[in-house]
Amino acid sequence: MNPSNVAGQAADHREFAKQLHAELAVPTSPDESDRYARWRNTRYATEEEQIAADAQLMAELNGSGWNRFGWPAEVGGLGGDVRHRAVLYEELAAAGLAIPQPTLLLETLGPPLVKFAPALAADLLPRALAGAEWWGQGFSEPEAGSDLASLRTRAVRDGDHYVVSGQKLWTSHGDTASRYVCLVRTGTPESRHRGLSMIVIDRDLPGVTVRPIAIASGRNKLAEVYFDEVRVGVDRLVGTENGGWAVATYLLQFERSVYAWQSAATAFGRFRALVDAAKQNSQADGLVSRIGALYADLVTLRARSAATLRRLADGAPVGPEASIDKIALARVEIGLYDLAAELHGTDFLFGDSAEMNEWRDEWWYSRSATILGGSAEVQRTILADHVLGLPKETVR
Ligand SMILES: Cc1cc2nc3c(=O)[nH]c(=O)nc-3n(C[C@H](O)[C@H](O)[C@H](O)COP(=O)(O)OP(=O)(O)OC[C@H]3O[C@@H](n4cnc5c(N)ncnc54)[C@H](O)[C@@H]3O)c2cc1C
Where is the Acyl-CoA oxidase/dehydrogenase middle domain (predicted)? Predict the structure, then answer.
């Protein structure tokens, strides 16, 4: 255990930030080795290599205790709250260390496990924090995305097991994940959100088949996951049978808040790279005011996201206003990578350097910013209905 004064840092996220900043900084003395050197500003050509390296960084941070702050002691944490985790992501990105991909879903799936399935969380979360495994979120299906309550994957109780059959689609990190936290139907087909349950399904169970989906960049970012009469123990239920919607609603608060914060921290890191490139690129002249506008968008996103995180840390509901953060994030991501494409011009299209490959991969992924985690149209409807209180649109 490296961090000094653990209790003090758990009580005060500012002290934690100070210590962590020093921990992640590049050593200034030539006598000191940089224990994070292998992850600093490093990028891997395939998704599988990238996520394996990310997992090793998690193991490193876990061994020294740094990524255990912000999680309760019952699940292997060192105390503190979500602000400690936010500080970790911020400091990692600022130090040129990519935010480990497994943490994106850990931040969405971990909190509901801690709240609704504490025994399961005590078993699984320490492994996830140590980078020994990561999880996929099995919500979307071919006929159920925006309208999640129409999902059809069924779980039928048989003694102390559920027998699960159906298909999940667009599962991020699904190809390399060890487990899937799935929303399944335990009620009648017409029961909509009242007949859903949340359940953890291990990938290595008989009847689970996973097919990777490569996105346009060629990286296996997603997967489709099939369940063919998979027997899952009832102890894998998160919350109560048919109580899955309450778990999903709780989960969504983290997806809306911490994910946006992590993505903003990454975007800030990439913005700094864009500015450095612009300083040396004659084509940047015509882009200066757009770079300034992008910076304003980034700062706006960060301010919004910080306010949402504060609500979460105070135990207040995140609420429908978090849809603003989601829309702001999509605007930043699309704007950032469009600008990078323009700045690098033909190099962006044809260059084969690691740098250009990275910008291109990110540009492709950023196209999904208005879809993943709830489409932009649906977010705007939430704002119109629940924040502005506008009358419902008449369907013609
Ligand atoms: C990169 C990426 C990663 C993802 N990762 C995951 C994951 O890990 N786990 C997971 O479960 N899912 C994941 N998804 C799926 C994602 O949540 C869905 O794609 C999203 O919710 C939209 O659902 P859909 O694709 O079925 O589109 P649909 O719901 O069919 O929507 C199609 C179009 O209709 C519009 N539309 C739909 N309903 C309305 C409405 N009521 N009002 C106005 N417009 C509407 C939408 O805005 C969209 O433009 C991921 C998706 C992407 C692209």
Answer: 138-230
Token pair recorded at residue 156: 């039928």
pLDDT at residue 323 in the model: 96
Distance 6 CA to ligand 1 centre (A): 42
- Token pair belonging to 31: 């006598």
Ligand 1 touching residue 370 (CB < 6 A): no
CA 82/CA 87 separation, integer angstroms: 9
φ, ψ dihedrals at 311, nearest 5° = -60, -45
Residue for token pair 């496990």: 113
pLDDT at 1 over 70: no
Average pLDDT (51-73) is 96
The question of whether 255 is a catalytic residue gets the answer yes
The rounded Å distance from CA 171 to ligand 1 centre is: 12
Distance, in Å, from the CA atom of 326 to the CA atom of 381, rounded to the nearest integer, reads 13
- 97: DSSP letter: B
Please check the confidence at residue 290 and state whether its pLDDT lies above 80: yes
Reported as a single tens digit per residue, the pLDDT across 198-239 is 999 999 999 999 999 999 999 999 999 999 999 999 999 999
Of all protein residues, the one whose alpha carbon is nearest to atom 31 of ligand 1 is 146
Q: Report pTM.
A: 0.95
Q: Which atom of ligand 1 is nearest to the CA of 373?
A: 17
Mean pLDDT of the chain: 95
Hey, which of 220, 375, 381, 382 would you mutate to test ligand 1's pocket, going by the most ligand atoms within 8 Å of its Cβ?
Answer: 375
Position 11 scores a pLDDT of 86
For the Cβ of 384 lying below 6 angstroms from any atom of ligand 1, the answer is no
Q: Using CA positions, which residue lies closest to atom 25 of ligand 1? A: 145
Q: Given this model, what pLDDT does residue 221 score?
A: 96
Q: Average of pLDDT values for 78-103?
A: 96
Domains and CATH numbers, the chain: 3-99 (no CATH), 136-243 (2.40.110.10), 257-387 (1.20.140.10)
Q: Which of 60, 255, 333, 362 is catalytic?
A: 255
Q: In this structure, what token pair is assigned to residue 374?
A: 């709830």
Quick one: average pLDDT of 14-22? 94
Here the tokens at position 89 are 């992501």
